[in-house]
């Protein structure tokens, strides 16, 4: 069994996965009923409860970066019977029409990560994608909620403080909507294990204009649109 998640933890079929443990705690305390802390190993908090309309759902942090979400998503899929993992988090926009505060529903993730090298594809390049049924459900639900959403590809970077300050422009020209640090690993694990994954992101800052960034407090507590949309994915 897992050395990273409580062996007795019980998870719903669908897990929401923010990066920050405190964000997982915030979602459980403010959006779930009858919730229970099911794991806190290494300070990574996980909760299982019900949405306010009675559907079972779990929320658990992933930590930062592909290696961290790679471990936790693999174990949830492989050892705890989880079928769907929906990453929720923040990202930086690469496109002028994708504004701070908007929501991105991801279709795929490009990356500079080496995570796919494990498959020894002999020079081939894996293109990990979100599950289409989850994309469609999230998009339809976003319209019901009246949200301003963008649907498209993102970039998962292994580097937060990049020496090349213009590097983003290469991806910007290719139509990549924004950048974060985890989805690539999650999508690969879902493909490998024949499970389903999606990433829903709130734009917290932008490379494409002079819009102000979300504050640290807003990042943790004021991402209500993304949370509400993610919770509609419970089965």
TrEMBL record:
SUPFAM superfamilies: Purine and uridine phosphorylases. Its EC number is 2.4.2.3. It holds the Pfam family PNP_UDP_1. It catalyses: uridine + phosphate = alpha-D-ribose 1-phosphate + uracil. Keywords: Glycosyltransferase, Transferase. One of its GO terms (cellular component) is cytosol. One of its GO terms (biological process) is uridine catabolic process. InterPro entries: DeoD-type, Nucleoside_phosphorylase_d, Nucleoside_phosphorylase_sf. The keyword Manganese does not apply. GO terms for molecular function: purine-nucleoside phosphorylase activity; uridine phosphorylase activity. Residues 14-232 form the Nucleoside phosphorylase domain. It comes from the Bacteria. CDD domains: PNP_EcPNPI-like. The keyword Glycosyltransferase applies. This is Uridine phosphorylase. The gene is deoD.
